Task: inverse folding
């Protein structure tokens, strides 16, 4: 199998499509927008001489999923015959939910998590301020209410729907 | 001292007499101004890391003990964000220490510094966190107020640090600022809720104000390593943040029907490694595993 691999960026992007967020398994790391760049070293050489560099950026600084994601990227690439793998973390520019793909947002909703609104007033320290119109992923009502700014993971807030009465997670815009 | 148990049979990570500047070995006097800047930058980065690590450790004690589930989750999420910041700062400090030509690097293990050796193998006097973050959790009101005081400070600090000449600090600040905004919103709302809430909640947060106010001023007094890096536009001049901090505090306190204490004696020294007794207990718990079972991993 190793012999047949030709290293090119497209192959690597396709492999990374199969790596998912351990907390939200419907989302790939490409959907999340955390893979910022892929570098190919010695592309004319076949593995193991040729190598690949994957540049990722964390969603939240302390997100424990990042360590797992890093390991899963390595595993996926190893399984596909890559041995020379370099995974680097970059912090700037900082990740934003605006980098999440449309496809990713659709998958989130189908999974029961309200997808992030586009970045708007969230970056002001104004108080008791709720993001406008978070849509209930179950009944599509906009008549919803925030219960807590912090949900089951750092990236989510807890909401409830005033129409269908279901509680749900909202992937905070960030 | 709470840590006497684990101080036995080990050499200090850095020479104790040099605890104010751990990387400087007096036998190798600094002759190079670049080296001096690097040493101050290491101290500064450790200060930023220690602040966030100690507050993260303290907040995490609420895990499973929060007043209600949602707020238990909120305070531990904040803890996690702070721990993430600490890791970034420690990783950067370790990189600087390992690149530095001055010594010693790590007398305990003779291994290169890592985020883990810096968090788990330094002693009380080598920590540079401000005294505020090591104050006891107390009740919910005290934890909330400590978080508000610190998040308000950190928001202003990181906002300015985004313009630092130091690329790594700039990137960490840019990333962390987005999270701190949430912490500030959340803690501000809780200060108002408690201050303008019931008689008991008001009484409790008033008590917290009296207990914590002596530790506020230290945040705005530049330590030597901060002053030394201001002219290079690496560090943030914390003295310049005080007015904005006070403005925000007044605004929140007015809504919370709280008064701001005046002419309070300010304790300081934490940023130079002179801590209250409490830090020893925090470190004893946090560092126990690595001290008792060196290099053990999960």
Result:
């Amino acid at each position: 199998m190793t012999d047949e691999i030709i290293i090119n960026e497209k192959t690597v992007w396709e492999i990374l499509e199969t790596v998912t967020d351990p907390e939200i398994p419907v989302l790939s790391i490409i959907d999340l927008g955390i893979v910022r760049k892929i570098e190919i070293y010695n592309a004319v050489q076949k593995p193991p001489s040729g190598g690949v560099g994957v540049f990722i950026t964390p969603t939240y600084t302390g997100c424990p999923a990042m360590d797992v994601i890093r390991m899963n990227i390595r595993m996926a690439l190893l399984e596909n015959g890559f041995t020379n793998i370099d995974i680097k973390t970059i912090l700037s520019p900082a990740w934003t939910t605006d980098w999440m793909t449309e496809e990713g947002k659709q998958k989130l909703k189908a999974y029961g998590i309200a997808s992030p609104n586009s970045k708007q007033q969230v970056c002001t320290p104004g108080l008791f301020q709720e993001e406008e119109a978070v849509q209930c992923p179950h009944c599509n009502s906009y008549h919803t209410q925030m219960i807590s700014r912090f949900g089951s993971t750092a990236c989510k807030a807890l909401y409830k729907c005033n129409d269908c009465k279901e509680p749900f997670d909202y992937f905070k815009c960030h | 001292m709470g840590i006497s148990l684990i101080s036995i049979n080990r050499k200090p990570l850095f020479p104790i007499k040099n605890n104010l500047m751990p990387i400087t070995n007096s036998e190798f006097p600094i002759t190079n101004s670049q080296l001096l800047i690097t040493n101050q930058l290491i101290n500064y980065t450790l200060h930023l890391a220690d602040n966030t690590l100690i507050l993260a450790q303290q907040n995490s004690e609420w895990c499973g003990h929060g007043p209600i589930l949602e707020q238990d989750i909120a305070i531990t999420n904040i803890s996690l964000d702070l721990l993430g910041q600490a890791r970034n700062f420690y990783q950067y400090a370790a990189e600087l220490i390992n690149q530095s030509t001055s010594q010693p690097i790590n007398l305990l293990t003779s291994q290169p510094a890592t985020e883990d050796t810096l968090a788990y193998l330094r002693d009380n006097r080598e920590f540079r966190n401000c005294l505020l973050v090591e104050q006891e959790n107390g009740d919910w009101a005290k934890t909330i107020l400590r978080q508000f005081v610190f998040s308000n400070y950190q928001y202003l600090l990181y906002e300015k640090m985004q313009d630092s000449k130091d690329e790594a600090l700039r990137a960490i600040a840019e990333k962390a600022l987005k999270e701190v905004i949430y912490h500030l919103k959340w803690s501000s709302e809780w200060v108002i809720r408690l201050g303008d809430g019931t008689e008991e909640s008001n009484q409790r947060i008033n008590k917290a104000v009296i207990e914590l106010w002596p530790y506020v001023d230290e945040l705005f007094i530049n330590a030597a390593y901060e002053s030394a890096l201001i002219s290079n536009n690496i560090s943030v001049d914390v003295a310049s943040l005080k007015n904005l901090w006070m403005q925000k505090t007044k605004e929140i306190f007015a809504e919370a029907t709280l008064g701001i204490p005046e002419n309070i004696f300010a304790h300081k020294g934490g940023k130079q490694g002179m801590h209250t007794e409490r830090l020893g207990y925090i470190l004893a718990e946090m560092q126990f595993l690595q001290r008792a079972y060196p290099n053990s991993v999960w």
Notes: Chain B touches chain A through 31 residues (CB under 8 Å). The two ends of chain B are 29 Å apart (CA to CA).
